[in-house]
UniProtKB/TrEMBL annotation:
Gene3D superfamilies registered for this protein in UniProt: alpha/beta hydrolase
Keyword Hydrolase: yes
Pfam families per UniProt: Peptidase_S9 (PF00326)
Record's protein name: Prolyl oligopeptidase
Signal peptide from the UniProt entry: none
Organism: Roseateles chitinivorans
Region (Disordered): 199-231, 806-831
Keywords for this protein: Hydrolase
Top-rank taxon: Bacteria
GO terms, biological process: proteolysis
GO molecular function, one term: serine-type endopeptidase activity
Ranges of Basic and acidic residues composition bias in the record: 219-231
Length: 831
């Protein structure tokens, strides 16, 4: 049997009256693991992989909204294991540290440098971060003259402001941010004032309701098809704790003076935003009853418009608990509220016209409504949509919006130019939601002085930025779309062999871009009249990857659907060698075979690997076929009926193509994936003999445990029982004869991929005499963020491959003849 890292749980509040601090300490203390389950020490991969893992992260390059300054923000690459292990609460889908009301897993800021954006020779100013705590969340003020940073300590999440001119920092007085359920929400009123959510000063002691009886749930004949979620409320005591820690205070801050004052009364706020030029506030807050089957996002919500002093002007809606809503459905009544970004200070929202049920026949699914100041009259209808609303964006001209709807049966998206005064809209473009080659791009956004994000126009034309996908790879572009005749003018497109994307179009039409090549990290440049001036000179932190070769390979599966993968070759691969390989993939669903075959990625992208990427295995000598396409093509209502057949056809074509290329031994190929990719990998092991072994990380393998849909599947288990059973590799564990490595985060927070999925599959394989290894990573969620876990994952994958497909260096040999035998080395010991 394999050794198992002890699972970690949370102690709930003890019975009896305790001081608030004692209650917090006890309710967040972790339980010891099960008796006899001694944890194994963390392993480290090869020296070459360790060198990559320890490479520092590249700095983020953040131009200020006024395009005058640049912040170079250096962030911590990994979250220390001791931070992941900090006591925390998991309530209603939220995970937070109750001592400081912050998210548990923060991306820490280690260094901030400021300089002029457009002068490449400008001196840099270091922002001196006071020692102690964890700095995070750098945010520019709307005018770029100041910025904000947060610092988490043991007792508070503090808010600090700084001056761009000299980098000096000062703390905003009497502010303890409440980021328990609405992290880092800032509603700018103007360049120096904003409203944030803080911990109320008078919230009293932590509630300590004793658990005196069973927790009970009831249903009374109304269908409520819910997805499976982690971290749900379980009893009245959880409800009390959630309400206590999620309650926050609206606080007006002046970042120039460092002063603050509370406005309005505390509530369970999930959103606060300014309306127009700060004339009003739009807030959303939760109210009871809570649910034991849904996360807080779906709890009853009251939407209100308020004065700047927090006083409620009008209740706009009371959205009910999102229970009993059809799969792919919407709430009846008002939902999805938007504040106007301009001085008209209107408020917009969406209402369903089909009762929110896509099964109901209706000429129009949704409509957009508008309410103008002083918010006392009746709202007016702006637009009706034949399909389901997706998003609303505002143009910087103050009179138009971009309204997008989606036909989910076709997987089709349509965007309109919407006159905000209620006049007839005009279709701008439409395309498949998976379209890449003909995608028109997305609105090029900019920040207004009041802090709102709007779509940028140029002389009345709309700017669009996109990936510019093509059979030769992505070439980002910037287009100008005429709103008069819909003609398109291309203002910029990246050259072949590099990856250069537009960042900012200045008032004098100079263009700031971010440019990278295969071995040159992203740097900013200034384009002016054909001249290119580098603005930054970030150096390559991993020059050893220059010896890695990669190639985009395209081919077809047996029915003609186009496939592709990125073939990465290890640095020491010699001419004439065939190496063992790992195929890493993730299935995607398509309505159209032609769109399924569109290529993704660019040979000009800078080569860098995340800590848990399988590409690190190149340094141990393996060939990696990365991002191998696994399309599942068909009608969205039933395409999963042929999931097994299609991924099998994909996999066979991938292995055949790899053999044709002459560098991969087809009898020494492993399959792997993460999340839905893990689900795919285990299904391939259960239903084919194409691979010598598999690696499955954080997947779901028993679809009866996700009975109301998964990925794009909209039918329930009871509507498509045969499909759910067929797509559950757990039920075919007796057919998995090849070695399988299972890795899972102990604290997986993704819907459907509970650690139990891997645990039960491992138990099935063990009971049936299969070959498997199950690695449970303490404190890790759906993605693994600590350096210790990254090292363990790389060691596990490398050792597993050495055991089942062989050590590529120990067994490197000239291209094998057809009669050569594959390695017979056993997988690593599970003891």
């Amino acid at each position: 049997m394999s050794s198992r890292v002890p699972s970690v749980g949370l102690i709930r509040p003890p019975v009896g009256a305790l001081a608030a601090l004692a209650v917090i300490t006890l309710l967040t203390t972790t339980l010891p693991g099960p008796a006899g389950a001694a944890p194994s020490p963390y392993k480290q991969p090869s020296a070459a992989i360790r060198e990559l893992l320890d490479t520092p992260a590249l700095p983020r390059l953040l131009p200020s909204p006024d395009r005058q300054s640049l912040a170079l923000v250096e962030q911590r690459r990994y979250t220390p294991l001791e931070e992941l292990a900090r006591p925390g609460l998991r309530l209603a889908g939220a995970r937070f540290d109750p001592r400081n009301a912050s998210q548990q897993n923060l991306v820490a800021v280690q260094r901030v440098r400021l300089r002029s954006l457009l002068d490449p020779e400008a001196a840099e100013r270091d922002v001196e971060l006071p020692v102690g705590g964890t700095w995070h969340n750098f945010v520019w003020a709307p005018d770029g003259q100041r910025f904000l940073l947060s610092r988490r300590t043991d007792t508070a999440d503090e808010l600090w402001a700084g001056a761009t001119s000299n980098g000096q920092l000062w703390r905003i007085y009497n502010v303890r941010l409440n980021n328990a359920i609405d992290p880092d929400d800032i509603a700018w009123l103007n360049p120096r004032e904003a409203v944030v959510l803080t911990v109320p000063d008078d919230r009293g002691p932590v509630p300590n309701r004793p658990q005196t009886g069973p927790a009970i749930q009831e249903t009374h004949g109304k269908a409520s098809p819910e997805r499976t979620y982690p971290d749900l409320l379980r009893n009245p005591r959880d409800e009390d704790l959630f309400e206590y820690f999620a309650r926050s205070q609206l606080t007006l801050i002046d970042i120039a003076s460092g002063q603050s004052r509370d406005i309005g009364t505390p509530g369970l706020f999930t959103s606060v935003s300014s309306v127009g030029n700060g004339q009003a506030l739009l807030t959303e807050r939760l109210v009871r009853p809570f649910s034991y089957a849904l996360t807080f996002d779906d709890f009853p919500t009251v939407v209100e418009v308020r004065q700047r002093d927090g006083k409620v002007l009008r209740e706009l809606a009371k959205m009910p608990l999102k229970q009993g809503v059809a799969i792919d459905g919407a709430l009846p009544g008002p939902r999805v509220f938007y504040p106007s970004p301009t001085k008209d200070a209107a408020i917009y929202w969406v209402e369903a016209l089909d009762g929110g049920n896509p099964a109901n026949r209706a000429a129009f699914r949704d409509r957009v409504m508008r309410l103008d100041p002083p918010y006392t009259g009746e709202p007016s209808e702006v637009q009706r949509m034949p399909y389901r609303f997706t998003r609303l964006r505002f143009l910087d001209d103050g009179v138009h919006g971009l309204l997008t709807e989606e036909d989910r049966n076709r997987g089709w998206s349509r965007t309109y130019l919407l006159p905000l005064n209620g006049r007839q809209s005009r279709p701008l473009f439409e395309h498949s939601v998976r379209e890449r080659y003909r995608h028109p791009g997305f609105p090029f956004m900019r920040t207004l002085p009041n802090g709102h994000q709007v779509a940028q126009t140029l002389n009345g034309d709309l700017l669009l930025s996109g990936q510019g996908a093509s059979p030769k790879g992505d070439r980002p572009f910037l287009d100008k779309l005429s709103l008069r005749d819909l003609s398109v003018q291309r203002l910029f497109q990246s050259a072949e062999g590099v990856y250069e994307q537009p960042v900012a179009l200045l008032e004098d039409r100079r263009l700031v871009t971010q440019r990278e090549t295969e071995h040159e990290p992203p740097n900013l440049s200034l384009r002016e009249n054909g001249k290119v001036t580098p603005l930054t000179r970030i150096k390559d932190p991993a020059p050893q990857l220059k010896a890695v070769r990669r190639e985009l390979v395209s081919f077809k599966r047996s029915d003609g659907v186009e496939l592709s993968f990125w073939m990465y070759l290890p640095p020491d691969l010699k001419e004439g060698e065939k190496r063992p390989a790992l195929v890493w993939a993730y299935p995607l669903e398509f309505n159209d075979a032609a769109i399924a075959g569109q290529l993704s990625g660019s040979p000009g992208r800078y080569m860098s690997f995340s800590g848990i990427s399988p590409l690190n295995l190149l340094m141990d000598g393996y060939v990696v076929l990365m991002d191998a396409t696994m399309p599942v093509v068909g009608d969205s209502r039933n395409m999963n009926d042929s999931f097994i057949e299609q991924v099998t056809s994909n996999a066979r074509a991938i292995v055949d193509k790899a053999e044709d290329l002459g560098v991969v031994d087809p009898r020494r190929v492993a399959i792997g994936g993460h999340s839905y990719g893990a689900f795919m990998a285990v299904n391939l092991l259960a239903h084919t003999k194409l691979f010598r072994c598999g690696i499955a990380r954080s997947g779901a393998y028993n679809r009866t445990l996700t009975p109301f849909g998964f990925q794009s599947e909209r039918r329930s288990l009871w509507d498509a029982k045969d499909v759910y059973l067929k797509l559950s590799p757990f039920l075919f564990a007796n057919q998995i004869k090849d070695p399988l490595l299972l890795i899972h985060g102990e604290a997986d927070n993704n819907s459907g991929t509970f650690p139990m999925q891997s645990e039960r599959l491992y138990q099935a394989l063990a009971g049936l005499g299969g070959t498997a290894r199950y690695v449970l990573l303490p404190f890790e969620a759906h993605g693994y963020t600590s350096r210790e876990s990254a090292g363990q994952v790389q060691w596990e994958m490398s050792q597993w491959l050495k055991g089942c497909v062989g050590d590529p260096r120990a067994e490197a040999r000239p291209r094998a003849s057809p009669g050569s035998a594959p390695p017979t080395t056993a997988p690593p010991s599970s003891q």
